[in-house]
Amino acid sequence: MSLLSKEAILAAQDLPSEDVEVPEWGGTVRVRGLDGKGRDEYFMSQAVIRGGQVVGQDTTNASAKLLARCIVGEDGEPLFGSEHIDLLGKKSAAALDRVFKVASRLSGLTDEETEALGKDSGPILNGASTLTSAEISAG
Q: What is the pLDDT of residue 125?
């Protein structure tokens, strides 16, 4: 086996996509996995930052945040922008879950990361003290 060159790595077409039937919406959507930058942006969209430090996770509309980045048109461009996340989050939970599972798998999100969405994140270390997510939310 030979080692890949920088050029070969950068030229690789490595973003998988999959068409997903969504009966609740009356058709099929194309879901594309996130690139590394998009995945980091998705994680940061959930970060609660205080004093320049990440102190927790806000999972509000986590499914819709991922799907807005992963549902693409025939041209491969996202169909939704950040301004559509709340509207997308109001769609059928069953439909969102079906598409979310595919988007998570194609984006390389682990089961542990996706299972943590929407759950109490438990204690979060903050310097010398430990805060629960409820305490963080209270400010």
A: 39
Structure-token match 């979060």, residue found: 124
Please give the torsion angle defined by the CA atoms of residues 106, 109, 112 and 117, in that order, rounded to the nearest 10 degrees: -100
CA separation for the pair 46, 35 (Å, rounded): 17
Is the CA virtual torsion 106, 65, 43, 23 positive or negative? Answer: negative
**Structure pTM?**
0.76
Instruction: Please name the residues in contact with 3: beta carbons below 8 A apart, sequence gap of 6 or more.
Output: none
How many angstroms separate the Cα of 93 from the Cα of each of 20, 64, 87, 115, 133? Answer: 15, 10, 12, 15, 24
Which whole-number Å values give the CA distances from 94 to 23, 90, 91, 133, in the listed order?
10, 11, 9, 27
Q: pLDDT of 62-97, one tens digit each? A: 999 999 999 999 999 999 999 999 999 999 999 999
Distance set, CA 14 to CA 17, 19, 37, 66, 72 (Å): 10, 16, 14, 19, 16
Q: Could you give all domains of the chain from N- to C-terminal order, each with its CATH number? A: 16-138 (3.30.2220.20)
